[in-house]
Amino acid sequence: MTTHVRQVADGTYLVHGHNTNWVILKDGDAVTLVDTGYPGDRAGLLESLAAVGSSPDAVAAVLITHAHNDHLGSAEYLRAAHGTPVHLHPAEVPHARRDFLQQASIGDVVRNAWRPGVLPWAVHVIRVGGTENHPVTAPEPFPAEGPLDLPGRPVPVHTPGHTDGHCVYHLPDAGVLISGDALVSGHATSRLKGPQLLPDFFHHDRARVLASLDVIGRLDGDILLPGHGPVHHGPVRAAAEQARDRAS
Hints:
7-stranded mixed beta sheet
């Protein structure tokens, strides 16, 4: 596959894979990888690292916003093949091990099959390995509070709701927020463009998703890098407010 790699700030790259995104934070030769796409995105993931002058061996850590298959796809591959640590919020660590699973079920998809785009999206998910099981054998909680000592100095911020341990990653110096699925700018199952929430059936706890928009709205930044959809430019606070208005 051919990925689309876009530099959005110094050392910060948004990569579009198969209907999902990941982010590369580069500092010298080393990088932090935030999310890893679907299992079927692995070739594109490696291609994107090469495109920014890096390699799997240069990945200092993989940070996961949440442990759904479209974000976790190659995390275990990087951990097992290259010794890359995989970090998540403590509440998401057992989810990454697949001690339990918090994601839309086949029944949820069938009940929502009437929605525009849902059936083509579901077929696509199967094709790119979205129904495969790729648990992370030894996921790790963040090693410290506050900014992580990794390329980009990302700050994890707990934003539960989509899953219990969902985190966004704030880059305050760059004015960037990596928002995962807590706030997106598009999706194959949505006709909306711009800041929005995913359809309700994707969320584990909708009330907490809405509460997390308040947390997101308090973060300074004007570049939003979502888990799905294009980069969004504009105040993060306004993006969170727009998503809330659309969800009401």
